[in-house]
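Reply to dn_fold:

You asked what the input looked like. This is it:
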Amino acid sequence: MNSLKTRISRYMSYLLRHNPEGLEMDEEGFVDIKQLLQKLKEKFPNINESIIRDIVEKSERKRFEIRDGRIRALYGHSIPVKIRLKEDRKVKTLYHGTTPQAAEKILKTGIKPMRRRWVHLSPTIEIARIIGLRRTPNPVILEIDAEKARRNGIKFYKATNEVYLTSYIPPNYIKRIIAQNPQEDKKDDRKTGALAGI
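and this is what came back:
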């Protein structure tokens, strides 16, 4: 995605996840795509609907959904929306990429949604690493024992092929793994979140 489309995508995310700024949004987070287009034109005068659709189709993490002429963000909201998510009862392991400083806190207190409505998790080490690289050049990858957590009542939802959501992960289901490079073998310090240090 080129730099202009990246900026448009970020503004779309801001509007659809955090601040609709006058857009008529329903309880499931949908707004009319033509209404969104008019709002985007305030910052990007040359934008058209085909550009919006191209951004949606080519988004690597499938951030948006278009349905019947309406568009919404699929995850990442800080505003209350009712997105119907299907629980995944089969996923066994998930990952979370973060900064060394945040990892130290997470291993003591767990993963919390913070300003978002959900905790975001990744299905692979590599995806978690890419997300972690947005915040730090040396991300720490945390492994979540989703199977054990699910047995104890924690639910996981598959938002897209690359994003899983849950409400909170306690530290006893988390451990730190060493995987700075996707080609490296996965190494494990075998310490649970309740005991591990960084």
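The beta strands are 31-32, 64-67, 70-73, 93-98, 119-121, 140-145, 157-160, 163-166, 174-178, 187-192.
Hope that clears it up.
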